[in-house]
């Protein structure tokens, strides 16, 4: 491995006389050592090329670190809420099987990259998995599975999969980001240190390449559907009647359910097509029932925002006071906001209930 030269922000050699670089101590204090490592190990300097130092690059790496840390905080918050412990019955959904397949694929890819001393690939694979797969897709699509109203088996399944991913990724990424992985690993296990662990082997039985391909199609359908929503002027909280997608082969019912949840539609329809890329069409006709459900979702969002502003935690129960709300969705509003009641009042507010 041969590195290039880290130049100043102006492309010249770093020099106190030029004043062309920030104080390293300030950068480390502001962003941390892990962010600096991710920035440099993912840069062309690790392939022998010279680069200009960029604080924006360190900041971008820091934002990645925050996403990784927030996945850990999300897991611990909901695990603690339900007194979750590793073990117990679990029934894997297509979403669970997919993230475990991607995790196995990550183990294979990172082992090859580490053995080849290819730090650029190490950073690329790690960031793609954490940002695109685990945080943006798996955790976001699993939020309703781990809340207080979720079923026991499904909640345990989702939490156990999150736990498995976090522990494994901590081991995989430890050479790259030693500090945050140590915090996460020790927070999840009773082990002395992540840096004393063996490199994960991966479970080839969990690798389903066809599922990975199909989930990529689901993501493309969702992306196209979101674009159609934006064009039509419908925010995501407004439910729509249906979406139709066109592909050479129909996706499984479980994957179609993910599409329905992601696009907030009541029905997913399929039409055969000879084109490999998906075509998507939304039914944008809004019935009175759909309109009221959208209003209920808006109200839930407002309550959640007020709870956050008031510093309430998941276990805190509240009472909602509102000038109006869709009565037919009152049960869903209460369930979605950890509230015990809702009553009419001149102004909208949320009050903590002392139990």
Structural features, described:
The protein has 355 residues and is mainly alpha-helical. It is built from eleven helices and eight strands. The strands form three sheets. A three-stranded mixed sheet has the order 4-3-5, covered by helices on one side. Strands 7-6-8 form a three-stranded mixed sheet, covered by helices on one side. Strands 1-2 form a two-stranded parallel sheet. Helix 3 packs parallel to helix 5 (119-146), helix 3 runs antiparallel to helix 6 (152-173) and helix 6 (152-173) packs antiparallel against helix 7. It is globular.
Q: Helix/strand/pairing class, anyone?
A: mainly alpha
Order of helices and strands, N to C? EHHEHHHHHHEHEEHEHEE
Find the CATH superfamily of the largest domain.
Isoleucyl-tRNA Synthetase, Domain 1
Query: Which runs of at least 5 residues are low in confidence (pLDDT < 50)?
Result: none
CATH topology of the largest domain: Isoleucyl-tRNA Synthetase, Domain 1
Mean pLDDT, as a whole number? 94
Please tell me the total number of domains. Answer: 3
Please indicate the percent range of residues in DSSP E strands (runs of 2 or more).
Answer: 5-15%
Q: What is the end-to-end distance?
A: 62 Å
Radius of gyration: 24 Å
User: What's the total helix number?
Assistant: 11
Sheet with the most strands: spatial strand order: 4-3-5
- Helical fraction: 40-55%
Largest sheet: 3 strands, mixed
Shape: globular
Tell me what the CATH architecture of the largest domain is: Orthogonal Bundle
Any idea of the CATH class of the largest domain? Mainly Alpha
GO biological process, one term: isoleucyl-tRNA aminoacylation
Catalytic activity: tRNA(Ile) + L-isoleucine + ATP = L-isoleucyl-tRNA(Ile) + AMP + diphosphate
Protein name: Methionyl/Valyl/Leucyl/Isoleucyl-tRNA synthetase anticodon-binding domain-containing protein
Organism: Candidatus Daviesbacteria bacterium RIFCSPLOWO2_02_FULL_41_8
